[in-house]
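Hey,
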Amino acid sequence: MKRIPAILSCLALVFWFLSCTQEGEIQCLHSPDTKMDFSFISLEDSLPAIKTKKDLVRFFTHHLALADIFFHRKNYPSDSAFINHYYRWFSHPSMDTLLLETKNVFGNGRALKEEFRTAFSNMKYFYPQFKPPHVLTVLTGLESDLFVSDSLIIVGLDYYLGKKAKYRPDMHQYMLQRFEKNYIVPSSILLFGIDEHYNKTNLEDRTVLADMITYGKAYYFAKQMLPCFPDSIFIGYTGKEIAGAEANQDVIWKKLIEEEALFSTSQQIKQRYVNERPKTYEIGNECPGRIATWVGWKMVQKYMTENSRTTLPQLMEITDAQQIFKGSKYRPEVH
């Protein structure tokens, strides 16, 4: 096999990068000929424009899914209590600020719609029976962020206004970094990837390895739908954290082996390596949380490299975590 000269390799990478990022010329579809039409409705102007309680009643009557799923109508003792609460909420002057900032960040919503189109087109490529869900965008007064089902996606845009927003969700800083506009579509597709409809699992297997592979398959799935997005977006790490994990795979692997973590069912072990937390301090002060799920992703990537004839749907059908682990031959060299 002839080796490609280094300069040609670099040019190829530059061309690929430009094709993925040049506005209006995204070439990251697996099937460029696929043209996915879907319903995308922008409602962010609607709630701040409410002037009377009757207006609000009409709005929620027309959008019952929003009332029930996103604003939790059934948690209120009566519909009157629900309407009174949200009339006060949406009449607050802060809603005007949120609307202005949303317009500044998202514009007319066209870019967000095209990101969804890319993801849905790739979903259709891998799963021909896929029917895209309706997408609604709305302001919530930081009430809700994201709802995803096979028929409906609702996005609370004000959750994703980023670091410069006047109002931000009340959560830890390490989690806030995931609430930027470029996380919306990857987060939505990741929820498809974790759902049992696509991601088959063995519910009786409660090991850390099973969790690692389940998450690893979900990350791999989402990356296939949005191949131009960086890995950091899917797992919610910074670029620096991704680079650090890549450079220290042997250290991470050694710690997991020393603690016999892979086949453990201990909740304490899962809390250390799988569950949500800012850092995995047992490995190092700079090691991000949920590090075992990242290792699971690396295992799945390696499995697909070692088993190149396996399709994405076939991968997602595998319920045996050990099959993927053994088939991946993932063994970072421990120094």
